[in-house]
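Sequence in, structure out. Go.
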Amino acid sequence: MLPEFLDRLFYLVGEAVVLLALCVLLLSIFVALLILYSFKTGNFFAARIMLLGTTLLESVIKSLFWIAGADDAVVDDVGVRLRNYINYREFIKTPREQRFIFMPQCVRSTECPAKLTPEGIKCVNCGRCNVGEAKKYAESLGYRFFIVPGSSFIKRIIKKYRPRAIVGVGCSMEIKEGLDLCHSYAIPAQGVPLSKTGCVATTLDWEQFY
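Output:
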């Protein structure tokens, strides 16, 4: 038999754990409903609180989506849009000449003749994909445009050139990691998700990009 005070202590700890779990569940349900609302309407309510909740409770929220038979990719999608929304004001204030665009190499044609250089893959405007036209347009506005082979390259370019704002293209997971990286450098960023993901021959909604 345990002493009475230990019995009481374990009872209180058990109650606290149950109460905490209930609070986490209720908060997760609340944030999940906000995510669904944002996904359907494109509007964000209490954006920073919502982002904090999404970040801290992501696994629980995705489990709720799975239990409900919903696509948990919605959580990542809204997470990207939410970060874009929060970052937009600072991003748009940054001169275009100090904004960098990072385009993943998977968007280019499988027959792309461009070669990898220390500055990324150098587009030769062969016309086999839309990347060359996008690069030309972005650079005409003053942006620096990089076709990147991986996240380590992005880190190196950020450290080398210190951009003040970034546009990143990729799948939801890559964008999420990229936005977190930019946040660590206090760089306002905008993420543009691919419409078809994969390792090669991915696609992008170019109208959304422009």
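Check: The helical segments are 4-41, 47-56, 58-67, 73-93, 131-141, 151-161, 172-184, 206-209. Residues 9 and 15 are 10 Å apart (CA to CA).
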